[in-house]
Every structure is written in structure tokens, then in C-alpha cells.
Amino acid sequence: MKLTVLGCSGGIGSGRHTTSLLVDDDVLIDAGSGLTTLDFEQLLKIDHVFLTHAHLDHVLGLPLLLDSVGDLRGTPVTVHALPEVLQVLATHLFNWHLWPDFRVIPSAESPWLRFEPLDFGQTFTLAGRSFRPLPANHVVPACGLHLSTAAGSLVFSGDTTHSDAFVAALNAIPDLRHLIIETSFENERADVARASRHHWPDSLAAELGMLSVGPEIWITHLKPGNEVAIMEELREAASGWGVEALIQGQVIEL
Fold first, then answer.
1. How far is CA 225 from CA 11, 42, 60, 155, 228, in A?
2. Tell me, what's the pLDDT at 242?
3. Please, are residues 147 and 138 in contact by the beta-carbon 8 Å criterion?
4. Structural domain boundaries of the chain?
């Protein structure tokens, strides 16, 4: 399995793109502005999209993907997410006001878009790759994702602050090789992080200290302009973990 980072920033500007990760060439994890870096032929190959939550920076590329390639596909793009997330998309995005409802275009029998609920405790397996939602602690219904292959596991936290359930889930994955986890603000902005349920360096360091597994740690969702300061604080607070910032264009292989 190959995971390519299309976007991993907490915002936009100066080459920054918001969260979207490409698994091999046919699966997306989140559909932020990073999705727009794919060329047309690559867009045509996307069959499945797994969403961690419905915030705009994680879904904004989805309607444009469907509008661009829907009529050229023989099957719908399937979006997998928590039922609450799919309800938000149906009510506020694919609602004929903000964007057409591609679940009934060109017809309900042959749509360009299909929703597939993915509840906690469920696993979706596709060509030897398994996708399983993990608990997260955000201001809206959200999950992380556990990607499992015969070669090992990778976990993406999505947007979250500390979660005992998330830590327990990580500790139950003995072959966890990579953890992509967010840290959005510096320590001096911990009040903003708490209110919006994001990590800051000290909170992530405390969470890492609870782990009994030892994956490589990749930091995502750094706020634009503050990346260097956040990473400096993280390296001090979580010394010994070798934390590194995720980089757009980076490839992680399992």
C-alpha cells in the first residue's frame, strides 16, 4: 500500500493545501483542497472516499471531483463515513442549494455518488486493504482511520484533541508502523485548541506518553505561518519520539 500526501495543512496559501491523502490510486482519505493537485486522469481513478468528518477543509474537493468526472465513470464514487457525517453532507452540501445532489444525478438508479455508512466496530476491506474508524474527540462527529495491510498498519487521527478511547485503540494495534496525528496550535494558543478540540504540543506529548506501541509519528494540520514554532515546541515536549512534520507530496509505503 502506498499513501501519498496531497494536502496536510491546517489552511491554505503559499503552496499549502488542506487534508487529503491518496491510498494507492483509487482511494482518498478526506477530500480537502489537496485533492485539486491531482490531474484529470488521476481523478478518474478515485472509486472510494473515506471522510473523518464534515468540516469544509476536509470535504471541499468532493463536489468538484464529482462534477469533473461523474459523467465519465461507469460506477458511482462511494463515500464512506460515520452516519452523522453523511447526514451533514446530505443536508448542507449535496442539497441542491450549495451543490447538486449527485446521489440522484443522472438518476437515483444510476447516480454519480453513493453514501456508505461506516460505523464504529465496522471494517471495510478493499483489495487487501482494511479501513476501520477509530474514536476521535472533535467539535463535530469525527473519527480517525486505521488502515491495515499484510505489511502492517497506519493510523490517521483526523481532527482531534486528547481521547482516552483513541489511545486505547492505538495500543491495541501491535503492528502499528505509522501514526499521522494532528497538532494545530502552539502552546500559547492552548485555549483556542481546547475550544476547537485540537491538539497543541503539550497535549500531544502527554498523549504520546500513554502509548505502548512505537510507530513513526507524523504531524499534520499545522496552522499556516506557525508550522516552525509548533514543531519546535513538539520536539521539545515529545523528545525521544522523533516527531516529523508531514509534507505535501510525501509518500509512505506499507
1. 9, 30, 22, 26, 8
2. 96
3. no
4. 2-247
Grid coordinates representing 165 are 478511547
CB 55 within 8 A of CB 27: no
Write down the pLDDT at residue 45.
Answer: 98
Please answer whether residues 86 and 119 qualify as being in contact, where contact means their C-beta atoms are separated by less than 8 angstroms: no
Residue 159 and residue 181: Cα distance in Å, rounded?
8
pLDDT for res 213: 98
**Residue 195 burial class via C-beta count within 10 angstroms: exposed 0-12, middle 13-18, buried 19 and up:** exposed
Cell numbers at residue 207, please? 498523549
Q: What is residue 132's predicted lDDT score, i.e. its pLDDT? A: 98
Q: Which residues, in sequence order, are bridge partners of residue 196? A: none
Q: Are 69 and 43 in contact (CB under 8 A)?
A: yes
The CATH number of the structural domain formed by 2-247 is 3.60.15.10
How much is the pLDDT for 70?
96
pLDDT on residue 153 = 98
- Low-confidence stretches of the chain (pLDDT beneath 50): none
Instruction: Determine whether 112 is exposed, middle or buried from the number of CB atoms within 10 Å of its CB (0-12, 13-18, 19+).
Output: buried
